[in-house]
Design a protein that fits this description.
The structure holds two protein chains of two kinds. Chain A is of the alpha/beta class. Chain A contains twelve helices and 14 strands. The chains are: A alpha/beta, B alpha/beta. The complex binds thiamine diphosphate.
């Protein structure tokens, strides 16, 4: 598979700046709303409060209550009405406050959103983005730390993506809004405040593409979202032990762009797949299966996985054990190398 | 858009904000002085534990706290209308209801400190665990109440109060927008389930005022489901008790569901993570402070000479003791052991989970053998 080509940049002339993921998302929403009057932001507390994570901060003040809708407290309602608005030509961006609260809207996503285009054989487009802050590590109570992305990746007709850094946050959200397909946009909430340089005139990848963030020759680590930083840190730590780890950020979970992963595995012969979600029937299962199939003769070790566990998300005093950390990733790297 | 402070003409009230007893044609109540003092004590103790919860969060001892400040009368009035055999389905702010169900306030701490998801036994206490996903509990409560009815625990004549039961479900004004709450009400009416829907309209759902959820007063919605709806002054513990007792009796007698809207106010932020100054106006808070539920009952007790200074002092010192015990319990709570993560996922153990537990414990044991701490890069 060929490496994805870079996309040309937007017309923005803003100079390079240091931003957080939250700010990257905020800027992305602002740009999209300025460019296209049909872009709407909707959700609980997204207006005056600016969202519980302040990702929509200031948007209602600048675009008004009809572009930034503080909705009633009902996720099925938020997503269901957004579907109707999208059918009418709007491009709604819905915010789900926390991962564990998407399920009241699950029916609308699975039964209507994902199937509208197929059912109408392309006559009806539903350009809808659902933003979901996801994952653990913030010491929260129940339902605030889940990783439900695999449930959506399993549903045909949806795009499921996850950004891991401010630059991707900025570009991927704008691309998701421009997409005519419905996009589930998973945001690594515990990384909201991590910073990076953003040059808005620089080239960027298409939405559906994975990216090699760090090259290495011994083991490939494929991951996404909040675990990208953990895996990058693990790769740095592995260096001390003389192990050269390559890290691929999957970025798009459905469809998957496994070209760069396969290419990498053909060189390293080893793959570790990492995510916070429970392992059974997950995105990591999918990556492992397909790479095993595609790279069977290149593999020196079975594809290994590092995940959360097949338990409900535990009380926060236990999440440090639940979430893959640097040590668990390194442990898998070592086990892979030991074959 | 902003929250309202006037409950309207239909508001049931038995105590004015100044603590003066007023009568109501339908909801007069016989209550002893001792019961009145008891409810005062309930409210003061619950508020004190609540304030300590806020302080413990500020000191980093709790991850988050969900304050009840201002809603004490609504919860104590409703909670004291329940009998041991009744069942409560709470949301996450029901510290006063928990108190009335005999759950010690320290039992609430694990949820907010992150050591458990709720430690009390719902079967023993007659109170389900806290529900965080908005509205979910309304359908569960209706199902439970259907069960009470199917088992013949409603509408029995005779003197034994234990022969009849009902369920009370607690939710907020914001929750009324959720499908689950509508579905709960539809089921309850269709099956005549003995369930009392107790909505605490505290005027806000985080930053969104009640007007963002409904165009009609919430209690009026009941008509559409075919059962009575009533709005009570939720800062008046006497009125809340009277209306709740009536509603629970109706349900126990087999007359089907009811909706109570307790018109009240959230005097603190939504949670300790919320910044209420972004959306709430000061004068609104000031107006509601004049309706403080505890001050109101205290004024009444003084006015009618039902309690003296010695009583108030005794309650205050009890509150001090509770606060100290609450704090002490919190800071000394043991950390859950790692195997707790894998326990009770299924009633019949899953081989997958069992294998993961074993792997994980072996992995942890590896650190102990290596003589390094878990911070290092040893494997
Ligand atoms: C399904 C769901 N969506 C969103 C949330 C996030 N959230 C927690 S509390 C809350 C507001 C609830 O308001 P209300 O029902 O009025 O109850 P109150 O907290 O005011 O008692 C929201 C939006 C949630 N817990 N569950």
């Amino acid at each position: 598979m060929a490496a994805p080509t870079m996309e040309s940049t937007g017309s923005s002339t803003t100079p390079t700046q240091t931003i957080t993921i939250a700010k990257g998302l905020n800027n992305a929403l602002r740009n999209a709303m300025e460019r296209d009057p049909k872009v709407l932001v909707m959700g609980e507390d997204v207006g005056k409060l600016g969202g519980v994570f302040r990702v929509t901060d200031g948007l209602q003040k600048d675009f008004g209550e009809h572009r930034v809708l503080d909705t009633p407290l009902a996720e099925s309602g938020i997503i269901g009405t957004a579907i109707g608005l999208a059918m009418r030509g709007f491009r709604p961006v819905c915010e789900i406050q926390f991962d564990g609260f998407i399920f009241p809207g699950f029916d609308q996503i699975v039964s209507q959103l994902s199937k509208m285009h197929y059912r109408s054989q392309g006559k009806v487009k539903v350009p809808l983005v659902i933003r979901v802050p996801f994952g653990g590590g913030i010491g929260a109570v129940e339902h605030h730390s889940e990783s439900p992305e695999s449930l959506f990746a399993h549903v045909a007709g949806l795009k499921v993506v996850s950004c891991s850094n401010p630059v991707d946050a900025y570009w991927m959200l704008q691309q998701a809004i421009e997409s005519d397909d419905p996009v589930l946009f998973f945001e690594p909430k515990r990384r909201y405040w991590e910073k990076a340089e953003l040059d808005p005139t620089a080239e960027h990848l298409p939405l559906v593409s994975s990216a090699v963030l760090r090259t290495g020759s011994d083991v490939t680590v494929a991951t996404y979202g909040p675990m990208v930083k953990t895996c990058m840190d693990a790769a740095t730590a592995a260096e001390e032990d003389g192990n050269d780890v390559e890290v691929v950020d999957l970025r798009s979970l459905s469809p998957l762009d496994l070209g760069p992963v396969a290419e990498s595995v053909r060189r390293t012969g080893r793959l570790v797949v990492v995510s916070e979600s429970p392992p059974e029937s997950s995105v990591t299962s999918e990556v492992a299966t397909r790479i095993q199939q595609e790279c069977f003769y290149s593999l020196e070790a079975p594809v290994l996985r590092v995940n959360g566990f097949d338990t409900p998300y535990p009380p926060s005093k236990l999440e440090e054990g639940y979430l893959p950390d640097l040590d668990r990733v390194l442990d898998a790297v070592d086990r892979s190398l030991a074959y | 858009m902003r929250a309202t402070s006037e409950g309207g003409a239909d508001l049931v009230q038995l105590l004015t904000p100044e603590g003066q007893r007023v009568s109501h044609p339908d909801f007069d109540i016989d209550i002893t002085d001792e019961q009145l003092r008891g409810m005062y004590r309930d409210m003061v103790l619950v508020r004190r534990a609540d304030r300590e919860g806020n302080a413990l969060q500020r000191q980093g001892q709790l991850g988050i706290w969900v304050p009840l400040l201002g809603q004490e009368a609504a919860q104590i009035g409703a909670g004291r209308a329940m009998r041991p055999q009744d069942m409560a389905f709470p949301s996450y702010r029901e510290h006063g209801v928990a108190w009335c169900r005999g759950i010690d306030p320290t039992e609430l701490l694990g949820i907010f400190r992150g050591t458990d998801h709720g430690s009390w036994d719902p079967n023993e206490t007659g109170m389900s665990l806290y529900t965080i996903v908005i509205g979910n509990q309304c359908v569960n409560a209706t199902g439970y109440a259907m069960g009470q009815k199917f088992e013949g625990k409603v509408g029995n004549s005779g003197d034994d109060p234990a022969s009849n039961e009902a369920t009370m479900v607690f939710f907020g004004d914001g929750a009324t927008s959720q499908g689950d709450v509508h579905e709960g009400m539809v089921w309850a009416s269709v099956y005549d389930a003995p369930v009392v829907f107790f909505c605490q309209n505290n005027q806000w759902a985080i930053s969104e005022p009640t007007e963002r959820q409904s165009r009609v007063p919430l209690y009026e919605r009941a008509k559409g489901y075919g059962f009575p709806g009533i709005r009570v002054d939720g800062n008046d513990v006497l009125a809340t008790l009277a209306v709740s007792q009536w509603a629970m009796n109706e349900a126990r007698q087999g007359n089907g569901p009811l909706l109570i809207e307790a018109f009240t106010y959230r005097m603190d932020a939504h949670t300790t993570s919320d910044d209420a100054t972004r959306y709430r106006l000061d004068d609104e808070l000031e107006a509601w402070k004049l309706k403080d539920p505890i001050e109101r009952l205290r004024a009444h007790l003084l006015r009618e000479e039902i309690a003296d200074q010695e009583f108030f002092d005794r309650v205050d010192s009890e509150a001090d003791e509770l606060a100290a015990r609450f704090r002490e319990f919190c800071v000394n709570m043991p950390e859950p052991p790692p195997e707790r993560m894998f326990s009770a996922v299924y009633a019949e153990e899953s081989p997958v989970v069992a294998a993961q537990r074993e792997d994980y414990l072996n992995y942890l044991a590896g650190f102990a053998d290596s003589g390094h701490d878990t911070e290092g890069s040893v494997r």
